Amino acid sequence: MTDAATAERWERRIHLGAHPLLYPMIRGLGSLRPVVKLPGLGVLVSEAGLVREVLMDQLKFVKNGPSGSGALWTPVVGPKALVNMDGEDHKKLRQRLGDLFTPRSVAGIVEPAASAFESRITTELNAGRSVDVVECVKDLAGGVISKLLGVPDDAPGRLPNKELFNLGSSISSLVRLGRPSLTARQIAKGRSAVGILAGPARAAYRESDPGTFPGRLRELGMTEEEAMGIISAFVMVGTETLVSFLPRLVALLSDSGRIEELASDRSAVPATINEALRFTVPSPMMIRDAVAPGVIGGTEIRAGDRILLSTVHAAKSLRGFDPAEAMPPQARQLWFGAGAHFCIGMPLAMAEINAALDVLLDRYVQQPWTISSRRVSRGVLIPGYKSLEVANA
Fold first, then answer.
1. Is 43 within 8 Å of 37 (Cβ atoms)?
2. Shortest CA distance to 386 belongs to which of 138, 122, 23?
3. How far apart are CA 54 and CA 260, in angstroms?
4. d(Cα 214, Cα 224) in Å, to the nearest integer?
5. 38 membership: H or E segment, kind and range
6. Shortest CA distance to 323 belongs to which of 250, 370, 247, 258?
7. How many CA atoms within 13 Å lie on the side-chain side of 46?
8. With the C-alpha atoms ordered 14, 19, 23, 24, is the resulting torsion angle positive or negative?
């Protein structure tokens, strides 16, 4: 049976698999009060309008404070990787990078990986075998990483897409909500992965080929180290959330019984993806540091307070999954952030999502498929499926 309740149950299983204690606590506290002080952790903000208010105030709430998410990455990727910058320097760098993420630019990055994704899905299902969407999305993400690194497909010793994904994932997995900084061992692990990823990117940078992402960064006047930091940041920030979201989107459409209608009428695809992002919240928590005293939702905040923005409760508490309903203004694209730090890689992520969904919908029109088995991931930072296999219906 496929219905909204089934979709709700699986989403809850995914969150509980990742955070069996923390998820119920955050959702429970968010239901009681929009702002709660948690000793030893920080100030939990759970209402969508207040989350947006904090994200929009870059003067009072910064990403690069001592316990903010940006500061975690500086020892790993260097001080100028965009994700760990604030203020005027961040604004100027973001403006310089803007042209790299136009629809035309990201299409060139995504198309080869999307073609390989389609080939794998088609080959397995045509042979009558089930295919694991999670593994396919990891390959898709790895293919995009290879393009960001400027690695030619026929390069000697080129790492397989899955290994490229695993390297990116190994860096992002170092983060934990209760971990305000990384240990020396974790920093060394992150730097090692960055070093492997940066090898081919350095070669592409030095060749100054404007057809590669590193070559474009050089054209923009980035030093080699700045370019490596930016590339590493994009690799580590985007991989886990994409691999979390896409299989959950597939499951959500199947469980809710909307897949057939969407396959036959693509006009609802944009609204459906947007609603699925709100409902799944692939970035369930964002962190900022207060650098000045103030007030959030009637609660006094001191300079130095760690601000935990519960996007997962802020978005999920608004309603169940319903693409036909208009998006509440306070939640609009909240999973990509807001204000100065709104995700610059959003066009790239959306291009990957749309390309993969198009493949699966096209296949459904030719031969309907169904979910044959699934397992949720356990003890991970970003909730998701460990495997999600589809097979011909």
1. yes
2. 138
3. 40
4. 9
5. strand 35-38
6. 258
7. 21
8. positive
Token code pair at residue 242: 């994409």
- The owner of tokens 């993420």 is 101
Helices (H), the chain: 4-18, 22-32, 48-56, 69-77, 87-97, 103-126, 133-149, 161-172, 184-207, 213-219, 224-255, 259-264, 269-280, 311-316, 346-366
43 by DSSP, 3-state: which? strand
Q: Which of 225-234, 319-328, 353-362 has the lowest mean pLDDT?
A: 225-234
4-34+44-392 folds as Cytochrome p450 (1.10.630)
Using N-to-C axis directions, what is the helix angle for 4-18 and 22-32, rounded to 10°? 120
AA letter at 283: S
Cα–Cα distance, 109 to 99 (Å, whole number)? 14
β-bridge mates for residue 131, sequence order:
390
Residues 286-322 have pLDDT tens digits of 999 999 999 999 999 999 999 999 999 999 999 999 9
Q: What is the pTM of this model?
A: 0.91
* 145-203 per-position pLDDT tens digit: 888 888 877 776 678 888 888 887 877 776 665 556 778 888 888 888 888 888 888 88
Structure tokens at 54: 């904090």
